[in-house]
Task: inverse folding
């Protein structure tokens, strides 16, 4: 008798965890941005959160690489996570430069993109390897 397992491969588990962590840290950044307006601790919380969010974006890049490598699937998730890391870098620069007119909308965009990445990771369907010769 063969037992079916429902556990995900470790690379997929890490990918799901990293996507969830990235999305959660972005949500918390929105909350601490609101705290900037009402609390003296808001700046410190937002500053610390930015470092955690950046680390989560780095972890997500690593997770996409580790999820791709064993199966030899499409590297597209790696490109997406790397693009997200570029956006996170721009976000940090805009925050340090005190440019809220660009910083806030970019943060909203990043949260939306992270939700899409989380949905894709939770669906368990990674893009198949490319069958073209290119």
Result:
């Amino acid at each position: 008798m063969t037992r079916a397992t429902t556990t995900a491969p470790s690379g997929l588990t890490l990918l799901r965890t990293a996507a969830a962590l990235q999305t959660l840290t972005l949500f918390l950044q929105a909350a601490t941005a609101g705290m900037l307006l009402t609390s003296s601790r808001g700046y410190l919380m937002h500053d610390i959160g930015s470092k955690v969010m950046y680390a989560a974006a780095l972890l997500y890049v690593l997770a996409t690489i580790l999820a791709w490598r064993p199966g030899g699937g499409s590297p597209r998730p790696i490109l997406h996570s790397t693009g997200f890391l570029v956006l996170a870098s721009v976000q940090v620069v805009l925050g340090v430069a005190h440019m809220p007119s660009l910083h806030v909308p970019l943060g909203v965009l990043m949260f939306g993109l992270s939700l899409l990445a989380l949905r894709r990771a939770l669906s368990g369907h990674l893009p198949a390897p490319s069958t073209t010769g290119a």
User: Anything to note?
Assistant: The helical segments are 10-38, 42-71, 76-96, 100-123. The chain has a mean pLDDT of 86. The CA atoms of residues 28 and 79 lie 25 Å apart. The two ends are 43 Å apart (CA to CA).
